Amino acid sequence: MYSSKYIELLIEELVKLPSIGMKSAQRLALHILRAPREDALRLAEAIRAVKERVGFCSLCGNFSEEDPCRMCTDPSRDAALLCVVEQPGDALALERTGQFKGRYHVLGGALSPLDGVNPDALRIRELLERMRPTVVRETASAATPATPGTAGEKAIAEIILATNPNVAGEATALYLSRLLAPLGVRITRIARGVPMGSDLEYSDLVTLARALEGRSEVE
After folding, report:
1. CATH code, 184
2. How many folded domains does the chain comprise?
3. Which of 30, 128, 163, 209 sits in a 20 to 30 Å window from 109, CA-based?
4. Alpha carbons 29 and 175: distance in angstroms, whole number
5. How far apart are the C-alpha atoms of 192 and 165, rounded to whole Å?
6. Alpha helix (H) ranges present in the chain?
7. How many separate helices (H) and strands (E) can be counted in the chain?
């Protein structure tokens, strides 16, 4: 189609991106071709750096260059407040509201049996592991040192279920609420300020802030 096989290869790769169709991929490829060499190389370097230097926090599951991540080790954040989200993008969206000062736990998805996503495919076991030091810390001697940057520094008092307000997200929140209820921790769900069927990542800041402020008990 094009006089250069390299343009065709670029278009083939761009069209694999979410929400990018063939026409959009063609426009992006031609834009990159016309852009100054320095701009194109900066884009290529940014992509390379992300793939080589950014991984996942072993504690919360969020994107991070460090392990554990800065949010997990930040002493100014409330370790007693844990917000459970589906994807790292959801945590980023909530952070932009400036309303949440606790810590996060990223599940890596939502329950969807039809798509083959069962509890074992999510970071639910890791969530329960984060709850275990809470019990140990309360019964252990006061002289026992806390592990820096872990939820065990302070007993988790509340878990906010901030999964997406769609069928899969609601099923995940219900499953987690029943799983966590015997632990005696307060369990809340973000309010319905977020429209049903939408994703947190694409919600506006005011809606997300109100959803956090209006969270309710899970019954």
Report:
1. 3.40.1360.10
2. 2
3. 209
4. 44
5. 8
6. 5-14, 22-34, 37-53, 70-73, 88-97, 124-139, 167-180, 205-213
7. 8, 7
**Rg from Cα positions in the chain:** 21
- Please give the Cα distance from 48 to 54 (Å, whole number): 10
Task: At 34, list the tokens.
Answer: 């016309």
pTM (global) more than 0.90:
no
19-31 as b/e, with b when 16 or more CB fall inside 10 Å? eeeeeebbebbee
pLDDT band at 142 (very low <50, low <70, confident <90, very high): very low
* Residue 182 dihedral angles phi and psi, to the nearest 5°: -65, -15
Q: Is residue 58 part of a domain?
A: no
Q: What is the pLDDT of residues 160-215, one digit of tens each?
A: 999 998 889 999 999 999 999 999 899 999 887 777 777 888 888 877 887 887 77
